Amino acid sequence: MKTVIMAGGKGTRIASVNSEVPKPMIPILGKPILEYQLDCLRRQGCTDIILVIGHLGHIVRDYFGDGSGVSPATGEPFGVSIAYIEETEPLGTAGALYLLKDKLTEDFLLLCGDVIFDIDVGRFARFHKEHGGLATLFTHPNSHPYDSGIIMADGDGRVTNWLHKEEQRKWYRNRVNAGLHFLSPELFRQPGLFEELKKVDLDREVLKPLIPTGQLFVYDSPEYVKDMGTPDRFYAVTEDIRSGKVQAKNLAHKQKCVFLDRDGTINRYVGFLRSIDEFELLPGVAEAIRRINESGYLAIVATNQPVIARGEVTAAELWEIHNKMETLLGQEGAYLDAIYYCPHHPHKGYEGEIPELKFDCDCRKPKPGMLLQAAADFNIDLSASYMVGDGENDVECGKAAGCTPVLLTGETRTDVRCCPTLLDFVNETF
What we know:
With about 425 residues, the protein is an alpha/beta fold. It folds into 2 domains: about 1-235, Alpha-Beta Complex (Spore Coat Polysaccharide Biosynthesis Protein SpsA, Chain A); about 255-430, Rossmann fold. It has 11 helices and 19 strands. The strands form 5 sheets. A 7-stranded mixed beta sheet has the order 5-4-1-6-11-8-12, with helices on one face. A 6-stranded parallel beta sheet has the order 16-15-14-17-18-19. Strands 2-3 form a two-stranded antiparallel sheet. The radius of gyration is 23 Å and the shape is globular. The model has no long low-confidence stretch (mean pLDDT about 95).
């Protein structure tokens, strides 16, 4: 499998950090951004690399050569094979692919050269292959969705909408295009795109037009991906590398998680929440979840929603409520890595109920089904994780899954850890 890295960026927004090298060559702890990318790829057997260079491209060539040498920063072999394509004029984020269309005969990985990442490439590749689309975007939650493009997808991962950062949005799921893509060479056959050498925008001219065809998918993952767009993000990434957080988030490694109940834990408890207007974050929750994010633990919601089975809220309405939750959290720099909900309810006799959802399932808390599914999806070590909620069902669910349960209450109990609020739990734990 070939990997194409767009490594020609000027980095105008980050020029205050280093303006003398191309953005992918800006060093972090003595090693260029691009070298971190190559290290991650090499560890996973992705050694066939094509670098698209432009602005100050000779600096990239002089440093890496053909990939057979050793790193000036570490003295270790690069361990990859590198070919180069040079842009003599700016061709946008995809124009240079015209120069590669005859060399890319199989599905390939396309990366932006200004992001630090450590991901399980094999998982990403398998998802792309299983879904059979022309393109698969790597999406993830981030701490600033309000100034990022938002990707919307259905339950199968098929993209339904793409809101660029300048477009209006109200409530939205915090899922952002991370700048990592698996692409099919069939894209080169799209009329008018790669018939001549010209400037082409990957997102707006190549990928977004695929939405109506049903051939654009998202692979959603909480793994570490951050761009170097601003000095603040650069310095934040530097600390994450120094602490080991970047590599630890790779799903090939066991993850730790704080599972969160929703009603009464994240939002004000109103009984069965049926209206989006009733959703209100509790004080301190955004700060608490932001601190969980910073700790390296996953933050995953597991909530019973019998209102679906009872016919009182549709699945679409529930997701809009969750979109509001993610939007409000994102406005304060916090995010959720995933949301699991149980739509079932075992008791019958409600007007408007949905018969096929009225059964005794394995996912309704206190049963541990949602937590077990999350553990399988994200390689979570349940014994090193917490289940935090405001009810006995949360406590019993955590115990059944093998987590440490935490009950949000002002009471003191000997059989379970108690904290008054989610923020109190975070202050005591992280």
